[in-house]
Amino acid sequence: MTAVAEAPVAGAIPSFQVTLRLRRFNPETDTEPRWEDHTVTMHGTDRVLDALHKIKWEIDGSLTFRRSCAHGICGSDAMRINGRNRLACKTLLKDLELHKPITVEPIKGLAVLKDLVVDMDPFFEAYKSVLPFLITSGNEPSRERRQSPEDRARYDDTTKCIMCAACTTSCPVYWSDGQYFGPQAIVGAHRFIFDSRDEGAEQRLEILNDRDGVWRCRTTFNCTDACPRGIEVTKAIQEVKRALLFRRV
Amino acid sequence: MTTTIPAPRTPRRLRGRTNTELYAWMFMRASGVLLVILIFTHLFVNLMTGDGINALDFGFVAGKWADPVWQVWDLMMLWLAMLHGTNGLRTIINDYAERDQVRLWLKVGLYTATTITIVLGTLVIFTFDPCPPDAAADLLPSFCPVP
Ligand code: HEM
Ligand code: SF4
Ligand code: FES
């Protein structure tokens, strides 16, 4: 750590120099992505997103990345930081190794549009194809659809997804065979398949039984490691496999 | 303002409803479990029991294949390992071969090699005769009856 204490004010936050090695690509001028280093002074409370902001706002306004909430809610700023998929807004600089440059790249497996921005369409297409909405039959109840706490707990984990794509773009099967639905689509399907109020489980299971569905999963666990919401993604995928094997949800 | 980046993935369609991938996935697990038993017993019997590795020669193999138990054992090992390995390679081809033509030809090659190996292997296990009657005497192992 190259932490250098600033003026010795009581309670001052330590600041340090940090180098960000950014993977940049400008479709109007570049044919290939390139690396670019920036060294900035940051504080112990700062996150990678703050460093990106500092570079964009004070050094190079053309740096392009997505972010919205800046607090781990919207899922906009998944990127590959030091080779691992994470949210820039949830990654504290002080938790990284600061003696060497921090690499920041776009998430893998989706086409890069500019700098850290990728084309998310194929990702959302996969999500849409698992019918991620409540499917019911019969008359609408006049009151809310009730559910026991146990039934709610069944799929609680997969309701936490913020669709950041960190899992899907950490999956080696998705990198090499882009036809695979990817972990997030299976998480999205899981959320409804195991919902006692929903009646579309059979349809969704059939979709995921496809050649490019759950059977492509090789239990690598990259998705579980990547998920910023701590969702047990691999477990959800295995639960879908089990439901398919025994045709019971 | 086009870029050199390959076009994003095309939307997916559902190919008819089959359980092929489900069965392939189950087969990998089932054959895996069987292979553990088959392969390790095979290794133990060949390499550890009796004189161990020193006993391994033409005669040893001939002796084993005279016994229907070992014929069936080796047959199962052959078939399961070949089908398991072939299905594993099929998965890897699906992963890494991007163009349809490449996929197709790699698979044609794979299935051809598998078929030849399984057919030849099966034939050898069941038709193996250490002392073929019409062979030249100097090519035969010592334990063959002298005509
Ligand atoms: C010793 C007992 C064995 C066990 C328990 C076993 C188990 C497995 C399992 C469960 C898979 C599926 C992995 C997945 O889908 O995530 C697999 C894949 C594979 N197996 Fe085996 N196997 C055994 C022996 C063999 C043998 C003898 C061969 C070669 C002939 C072989 C070749 C392969 C290949 C090529 C794959 C695909 C690898 C991949 O999916 O990346 N295995 N094995
Ligand atoms: S499962 Fe986790 S990693 Fe995947 S999209 Fe949802 S929040 Fe992101
Ligand atoms: S900016 Fe919203 S999740 Fe990071």
Characterization of the model:
The complex is a heterodimer of chains A (249) and B (147). Chain A is α+β, with helices and mostly antiparallel strands and 249 residues long. Chain A has two domains: 4-118, Ubiquitin-like (UB roll), CATH 3.10.20; 121-246, Alpha-helical ferredoxin (Fumarate Reductase Iron-sulfur Protein, Chain B, domain 2, Orthogonal Bundle), CATH 1.10.1060.10. Chain A is built from eight helices and eight strands. Chain A has helices at residues 48-59, 121-128, 149-153, 172-176, 183-193, 201-208, 222-226, 233-246, and strands at 3-4, 15-24, 34-43, 78-81, 84-87, 102-105, 112-114, 117-118. The radius of gyration of chain A is 21 Å and the shape is elongated. Chain A starts with a strand and ends with a helix. Chain B is an all-alpha fold and 147 residues long. Chain B has a single domain, classed as 3 helical TM bundles of succinate and fumarate reductases (Up-down Bundle). Chain B is built from four helices and no strands. Chain B has helices at residues 20-47, 58-64, 68-96, 100-127. Chains A and B meet through helix 2 and helix 8 of A and helix 1 and helix 3 of B. The site of FE2/S2 (inorganic) cluster (FES) has 12 residues of chain A, from loops. Chain B: This is Succinate dehydrogenase. Chain B: Pfam families: Sdh_cyt. Chain B: One of its GO terms (molecular function) is metal ion binding.
Shape of chain A: elongated
State the name of the first-level CATH class of the largest domain in chain A: Mainly Alpha
List SSEs of chain A in N-to-C order.
Answer: EEEHEEEEEHHHHHHH
Number of self-contained structural domains of chain B: 1
Q: Please name the CATH topology of the largest domain in chain A.
A: Fumarate Reductase Iron-sulfur Protein, Chain B, domain 2
Query: What is the helical fraction of chain B, as a range of percent?
Result: 55-70%
Poorly predicted ranges of chain B: 1-13
Small-molecule components bound:
protoporphyrin IX containing FE, iron/sulfur cluster, FE2/S2 (inorganic) cluster
CATH topology type of chain B: 3 helical TM bundles of succinate and fumarate reductases
